[in-house]
Amino acid sequence: MSKFPIKRIRTLALVGQAGSGKTSLAEALLARAGAIPAAGSVDKGSTVCDYTPIEKSAKHSLKLAVASFEMGSGEAAHRIHLLDTPGMPDFLGHSLPALAAVETAAIVINAQNGIEMMTGRFMQWAAKRGLDRLIVVNRIDADNVKLEALLAQIQETFGKECLPLNLPAGKASKVSDCFFAPSGEADFSSVEQAHKNLVEQVVEVDEKLMEAYLEKGEVAPEELHEPLERAMREGHLIPVVFTSARTGAGIAELLDVIVKLLPNPAEGNPPEYINEPVGGAASTLSTIPDPGKHALAHVFKVEIDPYIGKLAVFRVHQGRLTPGMQLYVGEGRKPIRPGHLYLLKGKTQVEVSEAVPGDICAIAKIDEIHFNHVLHDSAADAHIHARPLELPNSVFGLAIVPKKRGDEQKVSDVLHKLMAEDPCFKLEHNAQANETVMRGLGETHLKTMLEKMAGQYKLELDSKPPSIPFRETIATRAEGHSRHKKQTGGAGQFGEVFLKVEPLPRGKGFEFVDAVKGGAIPNQFIPSVEKGVRNVLETGFVAGYPMQDVRVTVYDGKSHPVDSKDVAFMSAGRKAFLDALAKARPIVLEPIVNVEIVAPEEKMGDIAGELSGHRGHIKGSDSPRPGLVQIKATAPLSELEHFPARLKSLTAGHGSYTLEFSHYDPAPPPLQQRLVAAHKPAAHAED
Ligand SMILES: Nc1nc2c(ncn2[C@@H]2O[C@H](COP(=O)(O)OP(=O)(O)OP(=O)(O)O)[C@@H](O)[C@H]2O)c(=O)[nH]1
Ligand SMILES: [Mg+2]
Prior knowledge:
The protein is an alpha+beta fold. 27% of the residues lie in helices and 30% in strands. It contains 16 helices and 32 strands. The strands form 8 sheets. The chain has a 7-stranded mixed sheet, sandwiched between helices. Strand 10 and strand 11 form a beta hairpin. Bound molecules: guanosine-5'-triphosphate and magnesium ion (MG). Guanosine-5'-triphosphate (GTP) is lined by residues 18-24, 41-43, 60-61, 86-88, 138-139, 141-142, 244-246.
């Protein structure tokens, strides 16, 4: 029997705006539970969760951290897995996966700033995943906080079901309980009123209780317990608690709420996986939080330490994992046998003898395990995988080159390690511009990656905005001709080609048509003609960009019984094509992207101005939530180089955007001229 029956396990994630005090709260909770001797501080770089050097200098969390601890003893002992997430939107690749590993999202609000961008987004994401939600108003000790107004704002924004379980008292130096044993003073409203509000909200989910309440005018607190938990699960109640991670106000009370009211793993909303057995049909696999069943665990975090190696952190959803047991990794047929299982407290690992549903544990040094993998003990032919997590698009790009020549292999190794840790960090190679481009969620994201490479891996890179993938095409039909004839020394070379070119609709690519009649060009040489033509496609005609949306029809030519060769027809094909292109009004095309922006409503005008100043067109706008506007627009990619930084400054960091390729359009004449002038004019000299 496990030391911790799953009833006594809690998993919760601290989420919300950067600076709201999530890491400090984790610290205060750990200290209060006796899991660390005293609370460290973010400002001094001494916290359990912000343990990497780069977090200590940034004074922000930049990755997901797990702090598991125990509180209470004997029958009252509980194991709590606390996930501390970064609040900056650039690190959503770390914070969103945390929601897949917990029963409860504790959305932390900075009492000084009130509801911020990430507050609303995490409220929505947590609801979408079916998690219990708890609102923690932190920093209540700070100057000039208006807690009564903030509570009203919370209720106005997120609904009347947001009700306080406790209220600040003694000028926010402590909190008074309004649920378990309601008593004491409050800085605003009253404990009695708050208690009444809670009771009235909770009885709504229980008909019998409602009747009893209507009859007697009150309900005993013990009777409220179960329906309150049910109300939370159904989203009918979103409890609000007040804390100060700095003074400790409300911290013991928050621990009490975690233990007494938050759902245990059996009361959560277990995830579904997909099983695609070899040769069989795919089916949905519901997980059951029962230690007696087959083991199923989901890897929601991977961390690669340059010295210690890879650490895979997983949440057990079903069954029991023990050290040395045989496990399969996702689709792998070769089992692994992890020798040790660890509980994590920041960077500290504590060995454990088993993990049951609800537990969050880590396995070290197993290369086969990747982010989002499922670990299971079913059978070698079961291919069990998780659904992909919904993550934002990685739209911000930087082209990179190592500062030191010869570091290319190291760059590739390091980038792959970073990608393994962060699902929103991506890499692409732009063959045409011969550029390695890293992509992420914003400038801060990629700058942090560069810092990490320099600090952790001693790898220095230069970066610049990636090249724009311009293309070329033609504006009109034209004819081309070339005769290739060489008579030097021994055997000669002969080939003659007549062709025509015509523009194709946008996005159609390239077509090559053989319309030669009567063997004027013998069949075996047609592929050589095509090869010659395609050579030109790659390098374009006027500005060095690949050519597209062109049809080439070869319709006549001449051959020689002895001197006709592949090389002769390749050359004739190439030159005939160039001849035609010169007359077909070649033009440069530029990529147009769909831009979707979400920002505070009052910034609509500024953003519209910014877009139209850069040849953008607004297609429509919408209001996803009160106070927010969603703008849909199209704009040339070449105009958006500074857009992320502009949006950030226009919206004080509260705007976000996504980009996706839409289509190609002819570049306007001044841009055409600039691109043509920048291209070396000697490119098509006679060979
Ligand atoms: N006065 C006061 N300051 C606090 C409190 N909690 C946190 N802070 C301070 O607020 C700042 C941000 O705290 P963090 O704990 O790093 O906030 P976070 O939510 O983890 O921020 P990210 O990691 O960037 O998402 C630090 O300077 C803390 O010392 C509090 O209860 N009262
Ligand atoms: Mg933090």
